[in-house]
Amino acid sequence: MKKRWKKVAALAMSAVMTLSLAACGGGSSGETAAPADSAAPAAEGEEAQADASDWTWERKVTLVCPWGVGGGADGTLRPLQPILEEELGVPVEIVNVEGAGGANGVNYAYKQPADGYTYMLGTQSLIMLDLQKILPMDFKAEFIPVSKLVHSILIVGSSAKAMEGKFTNFDEFIEYAKSHPQELSCGMLTATGADSVAMKQTLAGGLGCDVTEVENYVKIVSYSSGSEMSSAMAGGHIHISISGVDEIKGLIDSGDIVPLISLSEERMSTYPEIECTGEKGIDSYIGTWRGIFARTDTPAEAVAAMDAAIKKAWDSPEYQEFLKNAVYLDREGYQTGADFQSLIDQEYVTFEEYLKGAGLM
């Protein structure tokens, strides 16, 4: 009989707790001896391998993307698809189910059989939807992380026209905002998304105020698409916006967007001239991650086999080249489901605090 994921999840949680007590932040290595009947990290790794080898791929695998073709989420899957097909030995189909901020795609994936052949791409947006009770199910209970693929760095940018006569860098933007309340504007894709949390954390850190007070200084303008927001900023209709560096790299390189600060602990290797929030003592490091999820009751050996195939695909020269070109290598990308779950749990806390503080929960 196939083992169920709940057993694996329990073992994975034991591994995470063991690692936490050892104050380690990477993969498990079975450093501490354990009784034969206890769940030691090394034994768990061996069981995960056994589960993966027990699964045989027999037909097409579907990857559900809850966002449209051509967006950043979809763009993460497209270069992975052919490599994953080769690893699995069966066709891999990407199905885009957009709408409702990702909720439609989650609902679609939830309604598919949990037979090991349907997986879903997820981002922080799903955490925000879940916290606000917008999803038609309990996301944390019904879905498990399989593998994390990427973790990008967000950038606050402007344009030459938007900056003209007002500021030339992040510090000058902050000083101008303090002396000219609500004259400057900031573009966001959604007022309740991860980008909003990140932007308000960054501005609050610079302004020296609470996140709930940011709009006393800077007007927030919401847009329905990244291209619309970038066009507005290039035209000087808004003064700053926030985007993943992977999404605006071309605009930075062309000079259409002038980067002011990256939301990262250290300066990026690709753009070492851009200041970062870490060096200014601003606790604002949220970046967009994207990873693969499965229904909780998906066979454990299928989940393990998918994770193993994703790791091989992620390590391939072709995908590594994609990651390099998209500026994804400054942060840890691939993570197993257990490590990925730890990051998700941390961000549930961060986003819940933000939503409650902003009166949105």
How would the blueprint of this fold be written?
Elements (H helix, E strand, L loop, with lengths): L4 H17 L19 H14 L6 E5 L6 H6 L2 H9 L3 E5 L6 H8 L7 E5 L1 H8 L7 H4 E9 L2 E5 L1 H4 L6 H10 L4 E5 L5 H14 L10 E5 L3 H9 L5 E5 H10 L3 E5 L26 E7 L4 H16 L1 H9 L9 E2 H21 L4
Parallel strand pairs: 1-2, 1-3, 6-7, 6-8
Antiparallel strand pairs: 3-10, 4-10, 4-11, 5-8, 5-9
Helix pairs in contact: 1-15, 2-13, 4-13, 6-15
InterPro entries: BUG (IPR005064), Bug_dom1 (IPR042100)
Protein name: Tripartite tricarboxylate transporter substrate binding protein
Organism: Candidatus Lachnoclostridium stercorigallinarum
Q: Please tally the β strands and state the result.
A: 11
Overall mean confidence score, pLDDT: 85
Q: How much is the radius of gyration in Å?
A: 21 Å
Provide the domain count.
2
Could you list the spans in which at least 5 consecutive residues all have pLDDT below 50?
A: 1-48
Assembly state of the chains shown:
single chain
Distance between the amino and carboxyl termini: 43 Å
Number of helical elements:
15
Query: Can you tell me the CATH topology of the largest domain?
Result: D-Maltodextrin-Binding Protein, domain 2
